[in-house]
Automatic annotation (TrEMBL):
Signal peptide: none annotated. It comes from the Eukaryota. This is ethanolamine-phosphate cytidylyltransferase. Its EC number is 2.7.7.14. One of its GO terms (cellular component) is cytoplasm. Residues 325-354 form a coiled coil. It comes from Zosterops lateralis melanops.
Amino acid sequence: CMSNYDMVHYGHSNQLRQARAMGDYLIVGVHTDEEISKHKGPPVFTQEERYKMVQAIKWVDEIAPGAPYVTTLETLDKYSCDFCVHGDDITLTIDGKDTYEEVKTAGRYRECKRTQGVSTTDLVGRMLLMTKAHHSNIDEDLDYRKHTDNFGKGPKGHSPWTGVSQFLQTSQKIIQFASGKEPEPGDTIIYVAGAFDLFHVGHVDFLAKVHQLAEKPYIIAGLHFDQEVNRYKGKNYPIMNIHERTLSVLACRYVSEVVIGAPYAVTADLLDHFKVTLVCHGMTEVVPDKDGSDPYEEPKRRGIFQLVDSGSNLTTDLIVQRIIKNRLEFEARNQKKEAKELAVLEAMRRLEEEKH
């Protein structure tokens, strides 16, 4: 049983994966907009969007909507939870108290490790900086470092919990996130392709719709490399690099397999290799391939192409706009959060000194 999640990213999914492994049934508490605004400032996503998003993560058995910001023993008992799990970063209430004090004292608290290489603060930073340093195989680090120096730093010093760091992909991470399931006889193999950048509710709605198209769907998501995404999306897209996008999509319960760096044109080779029955695309514009051809030419020729309306108008662009619109509030919030974290570190340091 855990809480929070405004912008859900693979770091959160990884915490949920770890939490699920500690027990048998995972209930995730998700706060209301009002509750988040009170403690952290206004959230980017509405509670409905956040409920849907968390529910789509494959390690989540159930969500507890409207969970209180402070996890109490009463909440744990209400949902018959033996213990609650939180990341090893600190969460503080408005008055600077540890939100998990009560459950810690009762011995009903467990901790999982924060995922190295990503934080909401970092992702917001990438959106605001508009550089491409976070892409894989691009060396634009110098330009990036100049900007990061004033992002994710507090009034004094640097909080170790927030700020910009680098994501290192390992085969172990992929194995932990992958389902490992091969298609079974009778499965309908459905192929979808895209950037799936900043994996969000719009993606979830689309994949859920695609999932409903068959009795036994086996969905393969083809993810384009960063350079390819940048070619058709421009600016500094993708915000998340190929490694991060891979984990984000693998964490979704509707997806069975991911092609890491799929060709932009859906070729005969690809369709035959995966024995694809159906190729789906959402209502977003399909940018022509480099040579001006339609990337879906082959599936259309085979009569296996289908447009799917997710019913959602949320795109990565819109999310970035929402976040930038919220930018000032965010930056004020991030600076306050850093100041709060640094104050805690300072207090901890003093306690240590007094002990010795």
